[in-house]
Amino acid sequence: MSKLPNFHSLACPAPLPPGERVLLGHGSGGRLTAQLIQQLFLPAFANDILCALEDQATLDLHHLGVAGRAGAEPRLAFTTDSFVVRPLFFPGGDIGRLAVHGTVNDLAVGGATPLFLSAAFILEEGLPLADLRRIVASMREACADAGVQLVTGDTKVVDRGKCDGAFITTSGIGVVPPGRNLALHNVRPGDCILVSGTIGDHGIAIMSQREGLEFETALQSDTAPLHDLSHTMLESCPSIRWMRDPTRGGLSGTLNELAAAAHAGVVIDEAAIPIRPEVQAACEMLGLDPLYVANEGKLVAVAPTEASEQLLDVMRRHPLGRNAARIGEVRGDHPGLVVIRSAFGGERIAPLLTGEQLPRIC
Amino acid sequence: MSKLPNFHSLACPAPLPPGERVLLGHGSGGRLTAQLIQQLFLPAFANDILCALEDQATLDLHHLGVAGRAGAEPRLAFTTDSFVVRPLFFPGGDIGRLAVHGTVNDLAVGGATPLFLSAAFILEEGLPLADLRRIVASMREACADAGVQLVTGDTKVVDRGKCDGAFITTSGIGVVPPGRNLALHNVRPGDCILVSGTIGDHGIAIMSQREGLEFETALQSDTAPLHDLSHTMLESCPSIRWMRDPTRGGLSGTLNELAAAAHAGVVIDEAAIPIRPEVQAACEMLGLDPLYVANEGKLVAVAPTEASEQLLDVMRRHPLGRNAARIGEVRGDHPGLVVIRSAFGGERIAPLLTGEQLPRIC
Hints:
Two copies of one chain form a homodimer.
Chain A lengths: L30 H15 L11 E3 L15 E9 L5 E2 L2 E2 H14 L4 E12 L4 H18 L2 E10 L7 E11 L15 E4 L5 H11 L15 H10 L5 E3 L5 H12 L3 E5 L7 H10 L13 E4 L4 H9 L8 E7 L6 E4 L5 E3 L13
Helix pairs in contact in A: 2-3, 2-5, 5-8
């Protein structure tokens, strides 16, 4: 899950005005989220691990008081996400599946093998127990698929009208093998940018469910666990610099995060971005830019250009990477900006989302 | 935080009827919570670690793929809790302070040194940023007091009316030293039961705030981090069998958990239970039984009788244990039952809470 919406570093324009209130846009993964994190959360909790600004905190075992030779021991990855998706059930998944995949993926794109999850449920008085049972069955299946164990949990119930059916927060622990170190500061000008498949499927599946839209082909969320794809990629191409799953804020959110934190320019070839025709059509109908629509089973990887062909080949042979594509590159010029080159040679800047495009998508 | 309300084992009467809905009592830490956990969560997620039924999952390093001699390596403790307290600010604390203390205490009573926290915020559109700032400042201070680092987080915003200001879920990682093993199955008939101080302060502080009650002396929540008290106790008395913090469900909830899981009887001397006169008075006025009122800065410990005097002495010399008392003992007879012996020699059974006494207390 992109840490744009989480505690992440982004270019951050104006300070939070006094007297202001929380807006939906503060949860969008865009500019307002960045502002909230930069101005409010980071100053309060600043520490080296949080400020590494990755999707997971990476903890050396010496942080845990366990002796070991530096660099020769595995490290722990630790991450958390709340899920507030509406509706609770949608084509291709539900809040439970999403809550497991989201945390598994945050660990996976950091190069960790996901191992243990916690789940904290906030339930609304009146939620049918049959719905809860369905959500829990779905989580159990998702845990089995991802090879993780749910080892601790909590349940709170709030009075009717004080939440929206169910909110679920999962946290995860994984292990990062010795020597593996994916980080934004590894990224170099000249590196290529790959995406593992079609973009916008999750957000559009949710939107079409909410709006009662019908398409000729069934549109499904892409929610999926990325642990095996990322493991396969890292085993065959250890030179991968950095990965991220472009969830809230969409592909553009992840690319802006990359550009801002790596102090690099990002140039994307629009025609190379894989996108389903029905997602494209829905976006046109709804007035949405697919670059800003959430994904829940895709990853973005940055790798040295010389590795790109082999990496693409490995990704395409994986069921979750069949539509993988090289979509652009990192540049030394225009640091901090994401530039989209159209098929006709035009160029436009894709900034961070201002406001909120699709609330409650995850 | 008592895992009664969490994924815990309790005597569990009837199966969940079909067509049923989530009730406030499912979050009470009482009978309905136990039912939900036993019938719905445990069957879905059953694994050895979850089924150990402690307040934290304890992970051997070999679970994490780290080599080490069995028994000679520290273990990891992992726990999670959501906080939905209403109002967000109350005498003696706020939701942020509670969210840090709750998770710190779940680790501490398991014998772990708390090290790292995550925090996931679900915010309601319209929450004043000044309130969020106050909550975050309070969390920062509570983290510093407890010696933990907040290393990863998440922020979601839901539309107005779809949550109640703010819900916060914290998860925590701690380290359990080699050889330390607090567990319900360690408890033996003849062991003594101690409590670290006055009971019911948190729940009554919240209730009096909600109801606008005034007392001659200011009633404050007891929310406090128990890491140092528990560490001090364990260092001076390594024979402690088991500890728990009696939060939701109150002292009675924790004692019932002890009786059920240890297959033992619990006999409590009512006159020995420390309780503030103003809490007693408020309970009488509100028709509440203080045994069922939540605490957020107290712990219950079970230890061999021969260690009780020394342990009580150590506890009373600690600022958070000044009012510590020996309140009862574990018995071989009437397994599963908690019996309260009154000052006049009468006996009554204190069962698990049925329904919900004080919703949204943590």
